[in-house]
User: What shape does this take?
Amino acid sequence: MKINIKKSTFYLGLLATGLIISTTSCDESWLEPKPLSFYAPENTFNSSSGLWSALVACERNMRHEYTGDGSPILTEHIFTEVAVEGTTDKSGPAQDMNLLITPDANLNSTNYNRIGWYWYEGFKGIKYANTVISRIDDPTDYESEAERNHILGTAYFHRALRYYRLTNQFGDVPLILEEILEPRLDFYSTTREVILRKMKEDLEWAEPWVPEVMDRGQVPKGAVQHLLTKVNLALGEFDDAIASSSRLIDGGTHALMTDRFGSTGNDPERNLIWDLHRPENKSASVNTEAILMVMDRVDTEGNSGGMSSMRQAVPFWITNINTPNGNRGTIDQPGIEIDLVSKYGRGIGRLRGTWYHQSMIWDDENDLRHAPGNWMDMTDMVYNNPALKGSDEYYGEPLQFRNEEGTVLVVDTIRSWFSWPHYKLFIPDPQNIRPSGGHSDWYIFRLAETYLLRAEAYVWKRDLANAANDLNAVRTRAGAAPYGPEKMNIGTILDERARELYYEEPRKTELTRMAFIFANTGIEAYNGKTYSMDNFSENNFLFDRIMSVTDFYNKGVSTRHGDTYTYSPYHVLWPIPAPAINSNTKGIINQNKGYSGYENNVPPLTTIEENISE
Amino acid sequence: MKNLLQTLHFRVSEKKILILCFCLMYISVGFTAEISDGRIVEDITVSGVVTDEDGEGIPGVTILIEGQGTGTVTNIDGSYKISVPEDAQLTFSYVGFVSQTVAIGNQSEINITLVMDTASLDEVVVIGYGTARKRDLTGAVSSVTATKLENENPNSIQDVLRGNIAGLNVGLSTSAKGGGSLEVRGRTSLNAGSSPLIVLDGAIYYGQLADINPNDIESIDVLKDASSAAVFGAKAANGVVLVNTKKGKLGKAQIKINSNWGLATMAKNEPIYGPQGFLSWREDVMESINAGGFEPYRFSNPNTLPDNIPLDTWLNYDGSDGDPETVWMQRLNMQPLEIANYKARESVNWYNMMFQNGLRQDHTVSLSGRNEDFQYYWSMGYLDNEGLIVGDKFTTIRSRFNIEGNVNDWLTVGMNTQFADRDESQIPVNWGDMVNLSPWGEPFLEDGVSLRFRPNEEVSGGRHPYYTPSFTDRLQKETTINATIFAAIELPFGIKFRTNFTPRYEFYERYNHEMAAHQDFENMGGRASRRQRKVYFWQVDNILSWNKNFNNKHNFDVTLLANAEKFQSWDNSMTNVGFEPHDRLGYHNIGAGINPIISSNDEYHTADALMGRVIYTLSDKYITTFSVRRDGYSAFGQSNPRATFTSAAFAWIFTDEDFVNIPWLDFGKLRASWGVNGNRDIGRYAALSDLQTGKYFYQRPSGELYFVSQLYVNTMQNSNLRWEKTTSTNIGLDFSLFNSILDGSIEVYDMSTTDLLVERSLPDILGFNFVYDNLGEVRNQGLEVSLNSEVLKTSNLTWRANLNFQMNRNKIISLYGDLDENGEELDDIGNRWFIDHPIDAIWDYKTNGIWQTPEADQASDYGVRPGDFKIEDVNEDGLYSNADRQFLGFREPRSRWSLRNEFKVWKNFDVSFMMYAYLGHMGTFNQKKNRQGFLDRSNSYILPYWTEENPNNEWARLYSSEGGAGGFNVYQSRSFVRLENISIAYTVPRTLVESAKIENLRFYMNVRNVGFYATDFNFWDPESAGPTPRIFTLGIDLTL
Assistant: This one.
C-alpha cells in the first residue's frame, strides 16, 4: 500500500508540533500550580472584603451549635439540672456519665454526646478569628482606620466568645493568639484566668469600635458588652460586670420587649412570649431585645439542616402510650382527623426535661412561659389513633398517665412522658410531613439574659435589692409576680435562667462559671456550703446543685435498657478529648482531674508571652 | 554509560536536546530517502506446511522475511506460499510456539514443525517505551496473555489479572459494572494513592479501566520492581500495568465475533427472619431492651402463657384489657399496619424483592488484517450487564481502531483510538433496607399499586427499598475518547525516532431529578440538578532509540524520552428546588425552580519528564540495564517541582555458561535490580492552602435578606511538599526444568518508601486535623513464586498447571522523627501508625468472649451485664483508654495463593479452573454485637445471639451495651479460598466448518465465583462482606 506524500507531510507536521510542545514544556513556569476555582489566602485576605468574609465564617460557625440531629446545645443541657439524655433503649447516650464521659470515649456523635464538638469547633472559631487578627494590617483598602478597628474588634469578639466557652467547659486550655501557618505540636495549657483576662482586654478594646447597630447576623456593640459582662463575672470582677451590662441595658439601642409585636402581634389567642420566639419575629428590627443572632431560613442557600428542636426535645409521644382500655393511644400519622404530629412534631425525647424544669421552678400560675398554649403537658394531648374511633371511648380524650387501678399506661416514662416549652421548640417545618423543627434564626444573646447577668452580679455583691429589680424585669415581663430581695440568691438566678433561657443558654458553661466563682471567692452558697479551688474536682457547686434538684443522677434511676444515670463532681469540667493530647507530641495539654491522663499534667502557663511563638 | 546520560541530561539544557533531535530528524529524512530506491530484488517462490508436534497444520502462523518486515500467514490447513529474495531467511512465529528462522538457500518447499513454547522465553514483553525478549529481562515482569483466557470471558481487565499474576492484588467488585482495585506488592504509601500506573499501548493512561474492552487486549505486562518501572519514574512507585491491544495479523482480512450471554445469580444467601421467626426474635429483642426489668412473659405470645400467669394478670401489666394478641403485638412495638397484616396473615418477603438473576450480554465484533505496509484492527463492543441487586445495571459501547501504515521504508505512522460510552444511570434498590423492614409491613398504599414510603409506618423503621429509585429520574453518562497518534522514523546508524501524541477527552454528564411525589422532596417542590464536566488531557512522548550489535557480542539498546502532559477539567453544576407550577419537566427545565444554586470547579495540572535507558547485553548472557528519569509535576510546583529517579539492574543467564552443565536444568537466569521510583498521587492542589467558601446571609433593618460569603482556610499549606520515593531491591531467579516440564520464577524484594506523602496528624486545636507532609519511611519485603508446569501430555490429554504464591511484610520504620524522653520515636496514635508495626496492623480493644450470667458482678464493674462483650482491660483500671488497645492482627492477607489448571481433552475440549486463597488477615464483624440500628423497629439477619437460657461465648445479647468502650470492634479472621472460575470450551473441528469458509468456531461456557470456603467469616462473602454474584456465561466465538 502506498500512502501519498501529502499524508506523510501531515504526519511530519504533527511530529513537529509534538516536538515543539514538549520543547516549550521545559520552562520553569510550565510547572506553576494554578488553582482555578478556589481562593488562596494570600490574594484574598489582603483586602477588607476578604477579612469581612473571614468573619462570616465565625458567624456561621456559631449556628452549628443549635442545628441538626443531636445538636451540641443538648450536651450543654444534659450536664445540668434542667434535662437528661432520654434515649433509653440503648447504651451509648450520655446517661451513665461515670462510664461514658472519658477522654478516649466517643465525644462527638449524635448518639453519644457532643463534648468533642465544642472542643474542636471552639478552636476552629479561634482559627477563623486569628486569621483576621494576624492579617489585620495586610489590606490597604480600608475606608478608614475605623473600619480596620471594627473588623479587628469583631474578630476579638469571636475569639473571646470561644475562649469564654472553652475555659468554662474545659478549664485550662491552650491559648492561641495568632494564625498558625506551620505545623505546631508543642502546645501547653494556659490557666483559665490568664486567658479570660486577655479576652477582657480585647473586648474592652473592641467595644468602642463596634457600632451599636449592625445588620442581623453580624456582631453589634451590644454583643461585645454582653460577652464582656460574662467574662467579667467569670473573673469575679462584679463591679466591671455591672458596669458593662449597664452600658448595654442603658445604651438605648436595646430594650426588653414588653408589648405584643411582629407577625403574631395581633393574634388574641397568643401572647408576648409567643411573639418573642416566632422565627419570623426574632430578627425583625422592631425586636429590640435581640442582640446577637444566627441566621437560618428555609429554602435559602447557605442555610442549615434545620433546628430539629421538636425532634430533640419533645417527648417520644407517638408510641408506648395506651388508652385505659389497653389500645395504642397515639400515632404520628400526619393528615388524620386528630393530627398531632404536624402540630407538635415527631419528638424522640432525646432531651428530657427534669422534674425541676417541668414543675419545681413554676411557682406562678400567671407566668406566660408556663401558660397553656405556650407550655405543653402530656395531658394537653389527646388519644389520636384513628383505630380507636368507634371502638374505644377514649378517642379524642386527654392522655392519662395511669388508669383507675393506678397502673401506669406509659411504657417508657422517661422518654415518652414529660412537659416541654412549646413556644420555644415549635419551629414550622414545611419540608417535613412529620416536622422535626425547621429553619429559624436563633438568639445567641438576648437582653433578658443581660438582665439576669446583672442580677447575678448584684447577688455576688450582696446588693439584693438591685438583683431583684433586674430579675423582676424579666419575670414581670412574662406576667409573673415580682420576687422580694430576700429571695435573691444564686439559686433564684439559676431558676429564672431555667425559666427564661431553656434551649437558648449554654447552661453547663454558665453553671461551671458559677462553680468557679464560688470556689475562687469562697462566697457562701445558699446551701450553706463554701467551696475552694483546692478540691474543685471533688467538691463544687455544680455537682451539689445538680444532685440537690434533679431526680436522676442522685436516685440511681435506670433506663429501661438497664443503664443507670450517674454523675460525679469532676464532671464540672469536661474531659479534654484524648486525640488532642495524643497528637500534641512535643508539648503537654493538661487533662482535667478525675480523668485518665491527668497524671501526665505539667503546671499550666501563666503568662501571655509564653504562648506567642517567635 | 550512566555518566554519559547524566551529561546528556543535566549539562546540556533540555531544550537543546530536543532541538537537536528535531534537526536530526530532518537530516535523516533526506538521507534515508536517497538510499531507499534502486534495490535489485530477485524473487523465488517458496511453499510448505507448518505443523505442530502432532502433525496437525497450524493456521495463522506468521511468516516474516527477515530484515524486510513483510511476509504472509499460513491458511487454514497450515500451508503457505510466499515470494522471497533468494538469499532471505524466513521466520515462522505463532503465539505459544517457539519461533524458528530458516535460511532459504535454494529450497522451494520448506515444511516446518513448530514446538510448543512452554517456557515462553522468546515471548516479547513490553517494558515501557520499548519491548524486550522475556529472556533479556533484568527486572521483575509478569505477563498474562489475554487471548489465552478467552474461554473465561473476562468482563474487565481486573478479571484478566485476578489470580494470574503473582504480586498483583486485585479487588473484588460485586456491581454490574464489575472491576476492582489494583495493588502491586503491598502498600508503600500511607496517604498517597496506591494503585499502579496504567500504560495503554505505550502511553500513560489515566482513564477508567472499564473503557478498555477486554476482548481488545492482546496481553498485559506488569512491571513490579523498581528497575523495570523506573522508566516511568515519578508515577511508578506502585508498579506499572502495561496493557497492549490487538493488532492486525498478516493475511487476509479477518472478522471475529465473540458473543456471550450470562446470568448473575446469588452465590450465597444471608437470610433474614421470615414472618414467624421475626415474632420470636422481636420478643427476645424487647426482653433485652428492657434488661432493666419486666414482668414475666410480658412480651410472650399470650396463647403460650404458663398456667401460673393468668391472662388477666398478663394484660394488667400495662393496664390492657383488649384483644390479647393485639396487646402482645403492641408490646413488641408493632405498628397498626403490621398488626392488621398479622391478623390477616399477610406477610411480605422483602428479601426476594431485593435480588434478581441479572441478565448479561457482551458482544464484540472485530475486523482486522495486515499486509506488507498496512495493518488494522477495528472492533465494536456492546456490553449490557444487570447486577444482582434489582435496578443495578451497566451498559457500555466501546470501539477501538488501531491502524499502522508504513509510508515508506523509513516512516511509519499510526493511531490507536479508543472510544467508550458508559451509561451509569442505574439506581439500585436500597437492599440494605430489607433488614429494617418488618415481614408484616405493607409494601403498597391502599390503592394496592403505589409504593408505601415506610412500609412499617414507623419513621425510623426503614423505607421501601424501591421508593427512591421509583421517584428518581437519572441520566448519568460518560463518553471518552483516548487516542495515541504516532509516527516512527528510522534514522541512520540504527537510530529510531518515535513521537506519540496522546489526547484524551472525557465528557461526563449527570442529570438527576428527585420528584416532588417523593415524600422527602414533596415540600421542597422537587429537586433537580445538572452537572457536566469536560476533561481534556494530552501528553506527548518523543522517543529516540538506538539498537546496535557489535561483533555479535556487545548489544546496546538505548532509549531516550522527552515527555510533557497537561490536564484541564471544567466542571459545572446547578441545582434547583421548588418547581412551579409542577416539577414534571424535571431536570429538563431547571430554571423553573425558585432557589437555583450554581457552582463550578475547574482544575489544572502540568507535568514533564526526561528519561534515558541503556540495556547492554554481553554475549547474550550478561544483561544490564541503567535508567534515569527526571520528572516535574505542578502539584509540587512551589519549591520542589522536579525530582530524579535512577535504577540499575543486572541479569545473568548462567545456564549458558560452559561450566554449568546440569542435565535437568534447561534454563536459568539470575537477576538483581535496584531502583528509585516516585509517587505523585496526591491531590493536584494538596500543597496549597485553599479557602473554603460558602453562603450565609444577613438581614437589613428593613427586613431584606442578602447573601454574604464565608471564607476560611481549609487545609494547611506546605510549599515544601515533594515526591514520595520508593527505593527497591529485587532479586529474581527464572528457571526451566526437565525439558520445560516445569518453569517459573522466584522473586525476593525489599522496598523502602521515604519522604512519604502523609496526612500528618495535628493537634485539632489548630483547626486542622492534618497537614500534607513528607515524612518517615515504610518498608515492604516480600516473596513471590510463580510456577508453570506441563504436568501431563498425551495425544488425548494435556494438563498444564500454574501456581502463584506471594507474601508481603510491611513495616513503618519511622514517622516524623519526634522522640520521647527515652530517645524512642513517637507513634502517630491519631492515625494509628506505629513504629515497627505494619500499616495494616489492627490496634484496638480486644474482645474476650461474652460475660456470662454468673459473672454479672464483674460485668457491672464495667457498666455492662451478662450477654455483653467482655473487653480486655489491660491496665485493670476499670476504664477503657488507649492503654487498653493491643495489636490484634492484620487487615491485609499474610499470603495469597492462586492455582490454575488447564486441560485439553481430545484436541477439541479445553477445560480450566482457577482458585485463589487469601490467608491470615482479619476484619471487623460487628454483627456479633447484635446492636445494628433500632432492633425494636426492624427485622434482622438470622444470626445467633446470647440469651440467659441459651448463652454462648461469641455473640452478644440483642441490643447489647458497649459500656465504656463505645464503638469497639469485634475482629474475626477473613481467611478464605475461592474457586473462582470453571470454564469449558469446545472448538468445532476444522473439517466440519471449513466448507462454510469459517476459520474457527468455538463454543464456551464458564462459571465465575463457583464457591468459597472460609474458616470463620461466613457472613455473605468473606471478601466483599455483601451479596456477591455467581456468574454463568455461555458464549460463541466465530472467526471468518
Q: What stands out?
A: The longest helix of chain A spans residues 145-169. DSSP finds 22 helices and eight strands in chain A.
